[in-house]
Amino acid sequence: MTGRQAIMLWMKTHSTFRTKEVDDAMNVERSIVTSAAQRMTREGETVVVHRKWPDNTYRLTTDEERAKFGPLTGINVICAECRNSPVMKRILTVYGRASA
After folding, report:
1. DSSP code per residue over the chain
2. Selecting from 1.25.40.10, 1.10.10.10, 1.10.357.10, 3.40.910.10, what CATH number does the domain 3-69 have?
3. What is the pLDDT along the chain (100 residues), one digit of tens a residue?
């Protein structure tokens, strides 16, 4: 069983999860569950509700949260738009980071 599968099984009956709870209940290594939880958070499937070392508390994202933030592409759109603006291109040209 993968960490993601263990988390999704746990979430069928619970609203939040901690990696220790999933580890104990599903008999999956804690490192695998932690890695899956972190990956799911990066991909926008889960949200960290409470941070406390060594166990964070996670929950699944709601439909409204997914709609608000949209698909997570991993690209910082604001920086890309700024970098491609005419003003920023002139600034980068002055500092030798872009061609004229």
Report:
1. --HHHHHHHHHTT-SEEEHHHHHHHHT--HHHHHHHHHHHHHTTSEEEEE--TT--EEEEPPHHHHHHH----S--HHHHHHHTSHHHHHHHHHTTSS--
2. 1.10.10.10
3. 899 999 999 999 999 999 999 999 999 999 999 999 999 988 888 989 988 877 889 999 888 877 776 655 555 666 767 777 888 888 888 887 765 5
Domains in the chain: boundaries: 3-69, 70-100
17, two tokens: 């999860």
